[in-house]
Amino acid sequence: MMESEEAFKNRMEVKVKIPEELKSWFPEDWDLVTRQKQLFQLPAKKNVDVILEEYANCKKSQGNDKEYAVNEVVVGLKEYFNVILATQLLYKFEGPQYAEILLTHPDMPMSQVYGAPHLLRLFVRTAAMLAYTPLDEKSLVLSLGYLHDFLKYPAKNSASLFTASDYKVASAEYHLKALGGSTDHSLLCLVSLNTFCS
């Protein structure tokens, strides 16, 4: 069903403000993967689930009276991450690595495998996703407030969460899979059981 022109015009513009400490990581991450052909080592030393859990524990230790909301944000981020990782958070060069992870860990949520760089990529996509939710303006502002609060946590811990030493140059065999096209897109879709692939 097409969105009406009026609904499109009335949709609120949503912006997720990425802290300055994290903004510089985007080009570095892109360069490591796409130009230098390095891969973030998986499973991550500190995976997405652990990062989100540490954030929740940090908020609870501060005597946060909004514990339920913090838990809901953590659960929501984890679910959203697991749903969109394959289709929106990976560079093409990372496709064969993802397929291998699915084969070796078929029952494991990807939030228990991937780490901080992929979680950070999620926040670039979050604004577009929020713009299409049926939230009223007050709920949207509240949701953005929680997301911005979460982003303070990786910003504060950026030196330990975002480091080029977590990437390694891909093997020659991997390059053949990634660049030679031997990992076909339909196979990747089949392996990931992702219904968004066409």
Automatic annotation (TrEMBL):
<keyword id="KW-0234">DNA repair</keyword>
<dbReference type="InterPro" id="IPR008676">
    <property type="entry name" value="MRG"/>
</dbReference>
<keyword id="KW-0156">Chromatin regulator</keyword>
<comment type="subunit">
    <text>Component of the NuA4 histone acetyltransferase complex which contains the catalytic subunit KAT5/TIP60 and the subunits EP400, TRRAP/PAF400, BRD8/SMAP, EPC1, DMAP1/DNMAP1, RUVBL1/TIP49, RUVBL2, ING3, actin, ACTL6A/BAF53A, MORF4L1/MRG15, MORF4L2/MRGX, MRGBP, YEATS4/GAS41 and VPS72/YL1. The NuA4 complex interacts with MYC and the adenovirus E1A protein. MORF4L1 may also participate in the formation of NuA4 related complexes which lack the KAT5/TIP60 catalytic subunit, but which include the SWI/SNF related protein SRCAP.</text>
</comment>
<keyword id="KW-0227">DNA damage</keyword>
<feature type="domain" description="MRG">
    <location>
        <begin position="3"/>
        <end position="168"/>
    </location>
</feature>
<dbReference type="GO" id="GO:0006325">
    <property type="term" value="P:chromatin organization"/>
</dbReference>
<dbReference type="GO" id="GO:0006281">
    <property type="term" value="P:DNA repair"/>
</dbReference>
<protein>
    <recommendedName>
        <fullName>Mortality factor 4-like protein 2</fullName>
    </recommendedName>
</protein>
<dbReference type="GO" id="GO:0006355">
    <property type="term" value="P:regulation of DNA-templated transcription"/>
</dbReference>
<dbReference type="GO" id="GO:0035267">
    <property type="term" value="C:NuA4 histone acetyltransferase complex"/>
</dbReference>
<keyword id="KW-0805">Transcription regulation</keyword>
<keyword id="KW-0341">Growth regulation</keyword>
<keyword id="KW-0804">Transcription</keyword>
<dbReference type="InterPro" id="IPR026541">
    <property type="entry name" value="MRG_dom"/>
</dbReference>
<keyword id="KW-0539">Nucleus</keyword>
<dbReference type="InterPro" id="IPR038217">
    <property type="entry name" value="MRG_C_sf"/>
</dbReference>
<comment type="function">
    <text>Component of the NuA4 histone acetyltransferase complex which is involved in transcriptional activation of select genes principally by acetylation of nucleosomal histone H4 and H2A. This modification may both alter nucleosome - DNA interactions and promote interaction of the modified histones with other proteins which positively regulate transcription. This complex may be required for the activation of transcriptional programs associated with oncogene and proto-oncogene mediated growth induction, tumor suppressor mediated growth arrest and replicative senescence, apoptosis, and DNA repair.</text>
</comment>
<dbReference type="GO" id="GO:0005634">
    <property type="term" value="C:nucleus"/>
</dbReference>
<dbReference type="Pfam" id="PF05712">
    <property type="entry name" value="MRG"/>
</dbReference>
<keyword id="KW-0597">Phosphoprotein</keyword>
